[in-house]
Structures are given as structure tokens and as C-alpha cells.
Amino acid sequence: MNYLELCREALRAAGTDSPRSMDGVGPGRASDYESQVALCVRQAWLDIQHLHPDWGWSAARLVARVERGVSRVSPRGLGVERFGQWRGDGLWLAAPLSDPAAKGRLRRISYPEWRRMTGSGPPRPGARLREWGQAPNLDLLLHPVPSEPQLLDGEYRKGAQSLAADGDEPDGLPAEHRMAIVWRAVALMHGSDSDGDGYAFARNAYLQALEPLRRQMLPGTGVGGTLA
After folding, report:
1. Which residues contact 56 (CB under 8 A, 6 or more apart)?
2. Which among 68, 86, 138, 169 is most buried, taking Cβ atoms within 10 Å?
3. Distance between CA atoms of 53 and 157, rounded to whole angstroms?
4. CA-to-CA separations, 20 to 10, 13, 33, 34, 190, in angstroms, rounded
């Protein structure tokens, strides 16, 4: 189900489906109530993504080029649009562009370590890369400053996706688990009426939908958690 289909399913699950089918999520294409449903569906997907930092669908690999003399680069500068965090202690590799087969494993260092190593003056190119780190603003940090262009090979976690267009698909979420979004959205549609039967039914259905999703998409997980 895409964004629009999730909205239609949420309307049906809540028992409030109108005689006409919801035409779209954009301005002028949905009634005021349908627009609220669309907001709940969007928030439901965000809530599920934020339940666990290590959902399987959020893992991604980066292979990128870093130019000579660059010791700090933003995720966007490496071509990553939806970025969450760098990950992997000891999983990063680097190789000179002139010899891509000569990969070397990088050691992770802290931001204070990187600052001490690089000093306060202008960066000076040195030996081949040995360390990497992450700045408070999520920039990727490199040491020593590479004396020639490098190929980096590492891992990161994607940032949360916000559904916007009718055809947007929940990125990485298997189709068989997308009813979790629907039931979370239905619970949100009840707003402050958390004592009502409709909310309780939607909450239970949501938690039941989360169980197989956690088993499939979390490493070594047990079932648990609460409705966020």
C-alpha cells in the first residue's frame, strides 16, 4: 500500500469510509476529515520508524569518493539525502583512488580525539586514512587528512521518511506489515479519547501487527514495547 492506499485503508478500518473513495492527499483533493486522516497516517509511519533505531530497513551502505585534503564532510556532501547516523565500529574501509584494491580498515575515534589529532591550524595532508569519527552535527570526520582522493566504504542508518505524495511507499517496510501503519493511524484518529472502545481495539490491533514486524526486521529482538 502506498500513502493514498494507506489512508483509504485507515478510513475503512475506522468505520468512517465515505460513499466516495478518497481522491488524494493533496490540497483540494481531500475533505477536512480525510486530510486529518492523512496526517495521522503520516505520523503513524514516523512513530513506527522511531520505535527502534536499528530497524532492518534503515541500514544502508555508502560507497563514495572523498577528495584530497578533505578531513570533514557532510552526509549531503557524500550524496546521502535522508541521513540518520553513521554506524559500524570497525566496519569502515578506505582505499586510495589510485589503488582501489588496497583497502584498509578504519578505527573509530571520538570527536574530541579527532579535534586533538587535527589541531587548530589548517589541515595538512598526511599518510593514508586510519581513523574516522562523527561530529555533533553528524559530519563524517577523517584522519589523517588524505593526501590523495579516497574511496570510502561504510554503513549508515537512514533518517525517518515522511510520506507526502499519493504514491509514496513506506521505504523498506514489507507489504505484509503495512497494516501496522493503518492501526497506529486509527488509534491516532481517536485523539484524546484513549478510554474509548475504538481506541482500545486499534491499539491492540497495532501491537499485534508489530509482533511479526519486530521478529522479521529487528536483530535478535523480543516482542514488547508500548504504543508511542
Report:
1. 172, 216, 217, 218, 219
2. 86
3. 8
4. 15, 16, 13, 11, 22
Digit-by-digit pLDDT tens for the chain (228 residues) are 999 999 999 999 988 755 457 888 876 777 888 899 999 999 999 999 999 988 999 989 888 888 888 889 999 999 998 998 888 765 687 888 777 777 888 889 999 999 998 875 555 655 678 888 899 999 999 888 888 888 888 889 999 999 999 999 999 999 999 999 999 999 999 876 666 788 899 999 999 999 999 999 998 754 444 444
Q: For every residue of 20-74, which 3-state class applies, written as one string?
A: CCCCCCCCCCCCHHHHHHHHHHHHHHHHHHHHCCCCHHHEEEEEEEECCCCCEEC
CA 170 remoteness from chain centre: 11
Residues with Cβ < 8 Å from 201, sequence gap 6 or more?
Answer: none
Site of grid cell 536483530? 219
From the CA atom positions of the chain, what is the Rg in Å? 23
- Total-model pTM: 0.81
